Amino acid sequence: MADIRVVEIKNVSKRFDDLIVLDNISLEVHRAENLVVFGRSGQGKSVLLKIIIGLMPPDSGNILIKGQNISELTVSELNRLRKNIGFLFQGSALYDSMTVRENLSFPLKRTYPDMSQSEITNKVVSTLDLVSLEDAIDKMPSELSGGMKKRIALARSIITDPELMLYDEPTTGLDPITTKEISELIINLQKRLNMTSIAVTHDLICAEIIADRAIFLKDAKVAYEGNIKELTGSNDPFLKNFFSHEFVPQ
What we know:
The mean pLDDT is 90. The chain has helices at 45-53, 75-82, 100-111, 117-130, 146-158, 176-193, 204-210, 228-232, 237-246; strands at 5-16, 19-30, 34-39, 60-65, 68-69, 85-88, 164-168, 196-200, 213-218, 221-226. The relative contact order is 0.16. 38% of the residues lie in helices and 26% in strands. It is globular, with a radius of gyration of 18 Å. A hairpin with a 2-residue loop joins β1 and β2. The termini are far apart. The protein has a domain at 1-81 and 196-240: P-loop containing nucleotide triphosphate hydrolases (Rossmann fold), CATH 3.40.50. The strands form 2 sheets. A 6-stranded mixed β-sheet has the order 6-7-8-3-9-10, with helices on both faces. Strands 2-1-4-5 form a 4-stranded antiparallel β-sheet, covered by helices on one side. With 250 residues, it is α/β, with parallel strands linked by helices.
């Protein structure tokens, strides 16, 4: 199978007033690869995700998704491209006034307006089955635990069968056991659905489970790159300090 570059980040820079958050970043993410992005707070990790999905324009440089330069797309073309991209927000971002069924039906109706109600129901049920929460279909978000909300949010983000998944702190606020469960679910779904993913995280438990490769943003640049063991086991003083202070051993 050919090695396909799903995401190409070419010389991307972004600043807010005098603060440079991304400085001439270049990066490639290949099909079925899981890339984890590390960095201290305010180092441009979430900004990078927003630029990739087209929610925020770069000041310079280009983002290509499966060869398409998103800055050259019309609004309708960009929206069509986004149908193949899933985004798991940090706070789950479920609609509190909607049941689980309605939360998952919503993106299907927007993405596939000709889909029948029975097809929508079948897709919702089968997707909930993937995250082992089919019994929660008629519950409200307020009735769910933090881990259940994250599972439902993950189900909603994959229900349109995206080729690319973007995760913004997918396990934030979860206890270590639930973090491990969500991380294993992410990697199992990625392998089952053959998705490519980019995950911003501060969570070493999550990163060790899901990452094929990791980068570390520092001073607005990709300062380090490698697998998790190479980064966490590095003798580099900055990395040693970061991983010993940011993460509490489990």
